[in-house]
Amino acid sequence: MKRLVAIIKPFKLDDVRESLAGIGVSGMTVSDVKGFGRQKGHTELYRGAEYVVDFLPKCKLEIVLADEDVERAVKAICNAAHTGKIGDGKIFISDVARIVRIRTGEENEEAI
To answer: Could you read off the pLDDT of 55-98 as tens digits, one per residue?
Structure first.
């Protein structure tokens, strides 16, 4: 099993969710986060004063998948989140040692 964490632009969330639903991904956790990478941030004007926005709003998706579903999910996210501009995001994939469904006690693949 793998844990896939994707950081994407907020306005792409619905497109990504629909794309993942189209390949059978039935659940995910979504968080509103802030951060920066190469995009660095930008300067804005507010009531005539200029200020720097260091952290940019992003959405963080966390999904646990069977190993054989990871590549399809990565392709679905990349296709749906791509704008071709800096700050499109990143995907991180890591191993999951164990999952337990609290309600039933099911473990691992049965708990996904």
So the answer is: 788 999 999 999 999 999 999 999 999 999 888 999 999 999 99
Contacts of 11 (CB under 8 A, 6+ apart): none
Q: How far apart are CA 82 and CA 86, in angstroms?
A: 10
| Beta sheet of 89-95, edge-to-edge order | 29-35, 56-65, 2-8, 89-95
User: What does the pLDDT read at residue 20?
Assistant: 97
- Tell me the pairing of strands 56-65 and 29-35: antiparallel
Q: Are 43 and 52 in contact (CB under 8 A)?
A: yes
Q: Compute the distance between CA of residue 33 and CA of residue 96 in angstroms, rounded to an integer.
A: 23
- The encoded tokens of residue 58 equal 């992003």
